[in-house]
Every structure is written in C-alpha cells, then in structure tokens.
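Narrative of accomplishments. A recurring question from our advisory board has been how the design workflow behaves on a single, concrete structure rather than in aggregate. To address it, we present the structure tokens for one chain from the evaluation set, followed by the sequence designed for it. No filtering or post-editing was applied between the two.
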C-alpha cells in the first residue's frame, strides 16, 4: 500500500531583497527545517517557487568582485566568471540557483532537493 504524499508549495517574492537572504530562506525551506517532522536523511515533498528574481538586490561592488568558479577536473581547468557575466549569459536565476546549492548539505540528496526549486525572472 502506498501513501499519497501531498506536496506543499511555497512562493518567495525576491523583489527588493538581497541575494543572500533569499537564498538562505529558500535553502531552509528546501531542507524542510520549517516542518514539524524534520529529518536530515529524507527529501521533504516541498516545492519552492521564487518569483521576481531579476528584481533582487546585489549590493556593493559584488557584480565585479565576486566570481563564480567552474572546475573541469583537469589541470588548468578552472574557469572564473564575474557575476555580471553570469547574469548577462544565464540571468539572475542561475545566480540564485548557484547560491542556494551552496547552502544545501553536500550529500546525495542535494540534487533531489534542487529539483524542487523553481525560479522565474
């Protein structure tokens, strides 16, 4: 006998908030920290949708100073890209996705939790 699991859906409005505050709130929701039956080793049936991602604030000189790093695994395979280039190429959604992934636990469930994140610009 299988149980029917209801998926809860949360909507986070990103307009006017800073990147780190939105990312930490979304990571907490994806982990299921707000539920009463929180366990570390399960993926909770929660979908988080972030709206107005292009209206969030990136304060200071972070657009030019902060870099995203991508390593291919080969010697000399480290690519560094400033935030402004990431936003031009892939948009604010990729910026938020990258920061939320960094706040989730580094284990086998990370990819499963990231599938429950929906970002709309």
């Amino acid at each position: 006998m299988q149980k029917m699991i209801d998926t809860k859906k949360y909507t986070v409005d990103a307009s006017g908030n800073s990147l780190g505050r939105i990312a930490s709130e979304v990571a907490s929701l994806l982990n299921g920290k707000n539920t009463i039956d929180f366990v570390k080793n399960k993926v909770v049936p929660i979908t988080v949708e972030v709206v107005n991602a292009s209206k969030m604030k990136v304060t200071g000189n972070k657009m030019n100073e902060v870099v995203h790093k991508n390593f291919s695994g080969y010697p000399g395979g480290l690519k560094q890209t400033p935030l402004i280039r990431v936003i031009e190429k892939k948009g604010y959604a990729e910026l938020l996705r990258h920061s939320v992934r960094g706040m989730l636990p580094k284990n086998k469930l990370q990819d499963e939790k990231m599938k429950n994140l929906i970002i709309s610009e």
